[in-house]
Amino acid sequence: MLELGLHYEPYALWGVPDYVPEELVSEVSDLTKPEVVAKMKSDIQGITPGAGITRFSIKMMDEYSLTQAGYHFHTGTEEDCFTAFEKAVENKQWVIVPLYS
């Protein structure tokens, strides 16, 4: 898992699988690069609407113009988030996952 930088100190809020080249994606702003948009899964599966990670993720979608780049953030259950990530990794898809504990 590669964390996408520390944009909200001291937290790393999103990550990508470690097979995504770090030289292409090492921080959130990299997600708007055309070569990354072309490969990255556009759906970002989050958890419940009231969770802190969800609120920060929605804010990041706006601050980094990710919706305009074609990404979509979805709320759901923890299981939805885990399942979406596991399926993407199983298929070696480039995917963004919200990180939380």
TrEMBL record:
One of its GO terms (molecular function) is transmembrane transporter activity. GO terms for cellular component: ATP-binding cassette (ABC) transporter complex. Residues 6-101 form the ABC-type glycine betaine transport system substrate-binding domain. Pfam families: OpuAC (PF04069). Gene3D superfamilies: Glycine betaine-binding periplasmic protein, domain 2. This is ABC-type glycine betaine transport system substrate-binding domain-containing protein. It comes from Vibrio rotiferianus.
